[in-house]
Amino acid sequence: MRRLFQLIYQYRAFFIFLLMEVISGWLVINHNDYISASYFNSSSTFAGNIYENKQAVQDYFQLAEVNKNLVEENERLRNRLAVDSLKIDSDSAAIPFELSGQYEFITGKVVNNSVHRFRNYFTLNKGSEDGIEEGMGVINPNGVVGKIKSVSNNFSTAYSALHSSLLISVLIDETETLCTANWSGENPTEISLEYVPRHIKVQEGMEVISSGYDAIFPQGVKLGTVKNVEINEEATFYEIEVALSADFFNLDYVYVIGNKLKQEKDSLEQELQTEYEQ
Amino acid sequence: MNSSNNFKQILIWVLFVASQILFAQNFVLYNRAFCFVYVGFLLLLPLGISRNYLLLFAFFTGFIIDIFYNSLGTHMAAMTLIAFLRPIWLNAITPRGGYENVDSPAIKDLSLSWFLAYSLPLLFLHLAVVFFIEAGGFHMFFYVISKVLMSTLLTVLVLVILQYLFYSKGRFS
């Protein structure tokens, strides 16, 4: 026993090294892909404050751009009001998701963002005190942006849509095909569509919107337009590239979407699932 | 090490980590070359430091960087690996005349070519670990390797420039 301790003491650097590698390996596997209230990421107060101060300096250089985006959004919403006000009264017309009352929108500001890594995240300056919860969807005026990963009191970290393990349930608008969007990890302006079967006639320029089936995004939020369609002779599914409509290089103000009926939907679906399993 | 030296090292640590988080993080060339300048702190630590402290510093630095990068564990693993290999690699490439009168493995005490031979393999290994963990496997091997190579070159370039600016003879000592 004594010799064992002697051995360990003699090679303590190596054993410390092993221990640390095991700890970090465990963290890599356990901590990264889960939605969890982890203190050790950029939504922590410490990191969030530093990022917010950094952004406060950068803000001055982006003012013109931010203003332009806000004006454009205002114009779009005004136009929509002018056109849609008649439709909303009639029973047959579909009510736009902003007005259905099922969703609430919380504005947040992106204080840190990355686009070049395989797993990209951004940090928002709003947290649980403002009503943000884990798993909520994040959009901006142009389209889908991401999904909240973890929340602290005043900050939250979100998966960017440019995250190689984030799957978004989407529809091809024209054909109403349900499929999945997932980022391949290379080009920050494109995202791939998976599971589009070959009998569907997909063409370039078709719009891709969120399906609403996952209760994260309301149905109809734009994701992008089909840019490139390919299919192999034997393959069952297309290989489709979609040009993202949100500009990820330039995220400023975003909306976090809370779905008031998510719990109800989830519990209903869970009930069904347990019934089937029995 | 005396206390003023310790204090100096802590200051250098803060500068390296802060510049990584505030500046170098956003400095990406051609979607390929990333700048991980904070590794320079570990590479430039004095030679006299004990292995155990080296490992602890590396582990802690990696942890702080991971918090800001949202990649808990990745930089910790890479930094610990480098900290473990640094003494071995330093032994392997001992310059003629040994390390007498050499305070830290920097350009001012040794030569530029020696520093490149010392830092390039270690940085390459560090970045390879970081990018392959991030990619979650080897399925994009050539894309990832190109990222690693470009980032290694960029980081070494930045470290060399930093040393000519701040570590030059008689500036700090």
Which properties best describe this structure?
heterodimer, A: about 280 residues, Thrombin, subunit H, 4 helices, B: about 170 residues, mainly alpha
Write the layout of secondary structure elements.
The complex is a heterodimer of chains A (278) and B (173).
Chain A lengths: L1 H9 L1 H20 L13 H45 L13 E11 L5 E6 L12 E4 L2 E9 L4 E8 L4 E5 L4 E6 L7 E5 L12 E4 L11 E9 L8 E6 L8 E7 L2 H16 L1
Antiparallel strand pairs in A: 1-2, 1-12, 2-5, 3-4, 3-12, 4-5, 6-7, 6-9, 7-8, 8-11, 9-10, 10-11
Chain B lengths: L2 H20 L5 E2 L3 E2 L4 H5 L7 H19 L4 H19 L19 H24 L5 H26 L7
Antiparallel strand pairs in B: 1-2
Helix pairs in contact in B: 3-4, 4-5, 5-6
What does this structure look like?
The complex is a heterodimer of chains A (278) and B (173). With 278 residues, chain A is α+β, with helices and mostly antiparallel strands. Chain A folds into two domains: 45-164 and 250-269, Beta Barrel (Thrombin, subunit H), CATH 2.40.10; 168-246, Thrombin, subunit H (Beta Barrel), CATH 2.40.10. Chain A is 32% helix and 29% strand. Chain A has four helices and twelve strands. Chain A has helices at 2-10, 12-31, 45-89, 262-277, and strands spanning 103-113, 119-124, 137-140, 143-151, 156-163, 168-172, 177-182, 190-194, 207-210, 222-230, 239-244, 253-259. In chain A, strands 1-2-5-4-3-12 form a six-stranded antiparallel barrel. The model of chain A has no long low-confidence stretch (mean pLDDT 81). Chain B has 173 residues and is an all-alpha fold. Chain B has one domain (3-166). Helices cover 65% and strands 2% of the residues of chain B. Chain B contains six helices and two strands. Chain B has helices at 3-22, 39-43, 51-69, 74-92, 112-135, 141-166, and strands spanning 28-29, 33-34. Chain B has a two-stranded antiparallel ribbon. The radius of gyration of chain B is 16 Å and the shape is globular. The mean pLDDT of chain B is 84. At the A-B interface, α2 and α3 of A face α3, α4 and α5 of B.
